[in-house]
Structures are given as C-alpha cells and as structure tokens.
Amino acid sequence: MPATSTKASRPPGDHGLVYPTSIRAPWQDISTAPQTVEADAGVVVSGVVVNPLAIAAGGAASWLALEPGGTQVALRLKYPVAASVTIAPIVRLCTQDENGVPGHAIDSGGATTVTLAPVPATDIRDNASPQFAYSEPALVDCLGAAKFLAAIERALAGTGITGATIQAQVM
C-alpha cells in the first residue's frame, strides 16, 4: 500500500454508530450482613455456594432485579471509616433467568467470585454520621439474567465493622 493511502476502519457500507449505554440507578444494599457466610441448608458444599435458590427469602442477602436494559452490576463494600478490616469478603456471583433457572455472573476476568477489598487510604467516603467508606467497585456481567445475588462465601471480619453492607448498582 502506498504511504498516502488510508485503510477503512470498518467494512464498506457499515455506517452504523454504536453508543455505549447505561441506565441510571442508585446504589442498593443487597447484603446487610457481609460478616456472615451463607449457611441456609443446602446452599453451600465444601465452602462453595452451589444452590443460591435455597437462600432464605428475607434474610441478609437479597436478589436484585435487573431493570430492563441493565446487563451489568457494580459491586462494592460499604464499611465504617473507623473500621479495621482484617478479612475482606468474597462473594459468589449468582443469577437467575426469567424462568428462575440459576446461573453465574462473571467479572471482567471471567471469575465467578470477587473479593471486595477495602483500601482505607484511597476509598471514597461520604459525609454521613457515622462516616462510611466505599471500596473500589467490581464490575460484573450478568449475562442477560433477570436477577442477581452476591452470596457470601468468605465473611468480612475485623473490628468496628457494624453497619457494613455490600452494595450493588445496575448498569
């Protein structure tokens, strides 16, 4: 090709534009007890959540309905600024399709679990009293599911962690 020629960046005749989209949604508490491993009968086998549908309704973990157009979820740990976290929680990324069939969601690396590790020196903070900090979000692809659940496989531990939650935002 001569040095002055230009190669097309898309196939001839393809003039469609693609816009990144996201829905606007608030952060919601989806686990109000990240200090507790899922323990309902039949949920965990050898430390791994294998039956998220057996998690009791109305408990500490809640299924999050994915709004129409929402295909990803951002997860973060909300914790008191005064807390001293010694063990960060690990959550299993669970989904249900519109027929209630369970499945996995995945993070950007293809993993079906994420660790929500706080970094007190750099995590963003609010102005509430008491003050809370928020871990860097983990982005999760829900693979077209209708519902999402973050099931606790390793519990949050430390001192001053009362009030900590796991939050999600549908995107």
Describe this protein's structure.
The protein is mostly beta strands and 171 residues long. The protein has one domain. Helices cover 0% and strands 37% of the residues. The chain has strands at residues 28-31, 44-45, 48-49, 64-65, 72-80, 84-87, 90-96, 102-104, 106-107, 113-115, 124-125, 132-134, 138-141, 147-154, 157-159, 165-170. Strands 1, 5, 9, 11, 12, 13 and 16 form a seven-stranded antiparallel sheet that branches. Strands 4, 7, 8, 10 and 14 form a five-stranded antiparallel sheet that branches. A two-stranded antiparallel ribbon has the order 2-3. The chain is globular. 32% of the residues are buried. The model has no long low-confidence stretch (mean pLDDT 88).
Précis, in short:
The protein has 171 residues and is an all-beta fold. The chain has no helices and 16 strands.
In what range is the share of β-strand residues?
35-45%
Assembly state of the chains shown: single chain
How many helices does DSSP assign? Answer: 0
> Radius of gyration from the CA trace?
20 Å
Please give the share of residues in helix: under 10%
- Average pLDDT taken over every residue: 88
Unreliable residue runs: none
Topology, number of strands: 16
Please state the structural category. Answer: mainly beta
Shape: globular
Topology pattern, helix = H, strand = E: EEEEEEEEEEEEEEEE
Largest sheet: 7 strands, antiparallel
Structurally, the number of domains stands at 1
Distance between the termini: 43 Å
